[in-house]
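Lab notebook, page 48
Experiment: co-folding of the full assembly
Goal: obtain a model of how the components sit together before planning crosslinking
Operator: M.T.
Materials (sequences as entered):
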Amino acid sequence: MHQFIHLHHHGAGPHSMGHGRGRRGRHGGPRAWGGPPGHRARRGDVRAALLVLLAEEPRNGYQLMQAIEERSDGAWRPSPGSVYPTLQQLEDEGLVTAVEHGGRRVFELTDAGRDDVAERPEDAPAPWDAFTSDVGQGARELMKLVRDIAAAAAQVVRAGDEQQVQQAREVLADAHRSLYRILAGDQPSDDDTHA
Amino acid sequence: MHQFIHLHHHGAGPHSMGHGRGRRGRHGGPRAWGGPPGHRARRGDVRAALLVLLAEEPRNGYQLMQAIEERSDGAWRPSPGSVYPTLQQLEDEGLVTAVEHGGRRVFELTDAGRDDVAERPEDAPAPWDAFTSDVGQGARELMKLVRDIAAAAAQVVRAGDEQQVQQAREVLADAHRSLYRILAGDQPSDDDTHA
DNA sequence: AGATACATCACGATATATCGCTAGCGGTGG
DNA sequence: CCACCGCTAGCGATATATCGTGATGTATCT
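Observation: model returned without errors.
Model output:
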């Protein structure tokens, strides 16, 4: 019996996070960096993140995704569905150029791209900060515990006998119930409000 | 706070599973299906699975991976690293041909491929049966509980306050400890043997 | 028998690309 | 102010491809 559970971590965008960018148009030349303060980030600001990172050094698409994930402490990993089209768009706009190295595509800023990044305000938060600043340490540790439990359960499956698997099932069923009791604790307080 | 944990299920091969294929050579024409009974399957038998599925209908690579996963009840999803090279190999051997449909590559058996599959013994187990037959119901349910817990934890993160996150952490930390106590139960019995 | 050497192949990671869908923004009108 | 609409862009799924590693099988040697 050899099965493994592997967790993948997805971050949805900063729905309620208040670091702002204005609208990104697709018309004409490089966009302006300025925007009214207080506007929301539009999900992940993939474009800004790519430009900032490429200003540091040339990278391929996969490396860019990884770098954003690291910088956001795992809270945000932009999807290929956003990264590659954005890279293509930046290339079309002349801000980025793709160079083939050993069958792989490395992206680097053009002069126009560097000018664009140079216009970025010095004190602008990094595009991934919209994520990391609001990721609570508690939530992070909770998700780590989920991953630890998954690994432990996989180990029980690999190394344990039927009785141990059964015991593990009871432990996890109990934990599952407890989690929903915690969640249920949300709602009686609503009921109390009405009572 | 919007983070999601998503579980991906990986099946390693049937290390101890006793359905047999003989050696697969890379020389010359189509391989024979017969083999000495009792030989082990070599991890997942990707080659056989692909041939059997393509005998049913033409499919692309991704669909083949999905079909194997379904047929094995989720216990085995062969990786792209095995599927695409094997398809290429089968193509080189003239058993399979790739046809482009709308920018996508659909694979279908050639006449030689159909002859090859026709030589397959009628009573041979499906290549994915090596996985499903030995996947215990208990282990399956255990892994489902892990997924349920991950979903519940994500919900706590989304909808709960700091206190609830803390409570959930305690629940999961306790469950984690319990799982390792179950695993530890493996070893004292070994110590008892020596005592 | 066990140990060693070697070859093969699938896993998991790396890497690229596009599609379908809809979240979320900006603009407009009431 | 709010409601609605149109549009863009990112998510998640679909889809393809290859690399590095090591598990596994076979052959040979002791």
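Interpretation: Residues 6, 13, 15, 22-23, 39-40, 42-43, 60-63, 66, 80-81, 84-85, 88, 103-105 of chain A lie near DNA strand C (CB under 10 Å from a C1').
Next step: discuss with group before ordering constructs.
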